[in-house]
């Protein structure tokens, strides 16, 4: 039977940063509300959550990187909404932002959660920001907590294995 590594409880003093885009704020505010609500429901104190608003999704990675560089955060949650228009602009934004966020996560050994909606229509974005498909901000917060706990369990497991 394989050993299953279970996430530990995130530490009580865990800080979480949230970078959220102002563009499509009617959507992103709901994502933010979902993320903050989930974090606080799961025991992260309100004063342990830092929120940085950026103009649009394209600006998310730079601020996420600056926050990661501080070493003060257990996770960075990135929230935005890019909705397809008449050109391929959305594809370029989505690709650049997603690859940059991956690079940040790997460079800083930090969970960087992709909560940027990449929708074909405003209706899809509404459904994913608290509508009938759930709230992707809340889902990112849940994933952030799980990753904080899993990385903590891995750290403990690696220390014990090395003893």
From TrEMBL:
GO terms for biological process: riboflavin biosynthetic process. It catalyses: (2S)-2-hydroxy-3-oxobutyl phosphate + 5-amino-6-(D-ribitylamino)uracil = 6,7-dimethyl-8-(1-D-ribityl)lumazine + phosphate + 2 H2O + H(+). The active site is at 89 (proton donor). One of its GO terms (molecular function) is 6,7-dimethyl-8-ribityllumazine synthase activity. The keyword NAD does not apply. Its EC number is 2.5.1.78. GO terms for cellular component: cytosol; riboflavin synthase complex. The keyword Transferase applies. Keywords: Riboflavin biosynthesis, Transferase. 5-amino-6-(D-ribitylamino)uracil binds at residues 23, 57-59, 81-83, 114. CDD domains: Lumazine_synthase-I (cd09209). (2S)-2-hydroxy-3-oxobutyl phosphate binds at residues 86-87, 128. Pfam families: DMRL_synthase. Pathway: Cofactor biosynthesis; riboflavin biosynthesis; riboflavin from 2-hydroxy-3-oxobutyl phosphate and 5-amino-6-(D-ribitylamino)uracil: step 1/2. Catalyzes the formation of 6,7-dimethyl-8-ribityllumazine by condensation of 5-amino-6-(D-ribitylamino)uracil with 3,4-dihydroxy-2-butanone 4-phosphate. This is the penultimate step in the biosynthesis of riboflavin. PANTHER family: 6,7-DIMETHYL-8-RIBITYLLUMAZINE SYNTHASE, 6,7-DIMETHYL-8-RIBITYLLUMAZINE SYNTHASE DMRL SYNTHASE LUMAZINE SYNTHASE. NCBIfam families: lumazine-synth. Belongs to the DMRL synthase family. This is 6,7-dimethyl-8-ribityllumazine synthase.
